[in-house]
Amino acid sequence: MKAGLLLAAASAAMAAPFESVAARSDKPSTVASISPSISKRQYNGDTFNQLTDGTACRAVTVIWARGTYGAGNVGEAGSEGPTFFNALAGIIGASNLAVQGVNYSASVLGFLSGGDAAGSTTMANLVSQAASQCPNTKIVMSGYSQGGQLVHNAASKLSTTLTNKVSAVLIFGDPFDGQPVGNIPSSKVKIICHDGDNICDGGIIITADHSNYEQDAPAAAAFVAGLVQ
């Protein structure tokens, strides 16, 4: 989500505040904490469709929703999504990981409305496709900022059977921080919000603390790996 673009659009719009009650994760003070495996950059682009492009089923399928105005369908190379993918691949092995981005408009109006409705449905449909197409894969629902809204919304659309197919949930900079993710058990959910992140506090102001979640990739990947291995 780009600060100038969001603030310019938000200044002309009104949005209902989002409740935020969850405890916050501490953010690393430097990027030196990022795992060396990330530098391998297996995922160095902004678009990945390894569920829909004919890639063979893999042990883990990450479905990722980028933030507002993010490039491609997973965000810019080196941003939250690709950095997380590389960290996870470094733990479980690149050949065991498939990444599927959610194709949606990612506009500021979608954010202000609580998460793009069409994108939320698309994400739920991708979970269903992963479960039917690759019945043995471990499904991870994940996203950043407005992408986190999509995770919440999509999870609420899942049947009990599909909910049970989700192995892990990861959200960076969650506008719905503190709220359940559908009926997915909290033990499978990690929401990372920095102190000082106004978006996590239910606001619409982009601070520096909302723009550096790639630093949390190692911790995020370790959490997810612990649930899918």
Automatic annotation (TrEMBL):
Its annotated compartments are: Secreted
Its recorded reaction(s) are: cutin + H2O = cutin monomers
Any one Gene Ontology cellular component term annotated for this protein: extracellular region
* Keyword annotations of the record: Disulfide bond, Hydrolase, Secreted, Serine esterase, Signal
Record EC number: 3.1.1.74
Q: Does the keyword Disulfide bond apply?
A: yes
Cystine residue pairs? C57-C134, C193-C200
Q: Which Pfam families match?
A: Cutinase (PF01083)
| SUPFAM superfamilies per the UniProt record, alphabetical | alpha/beta-Hydrolases
Q: Where is the active site?
A: S145, D197, H210
Which BP terms in the Gene Ontology apply to this protein?
carbohydrate catabolic process
Alphabetically, the GO molecular function entries are:
cutinase activity
Kindly indicate where the leader peptide sits in this chain: 1-15
Could you say which protein family the record assigns here?
Answer: Belongs to the cutinase family.
Q: What does this protein do?
A: Catalyzes the hydrolysis of complex carboxylic polyesters found in the cell wall of plants. Degrades cutin, a macromolecule that forms the structure of the plant cuticle.
Q: What is this protein called?
A: Cutinase
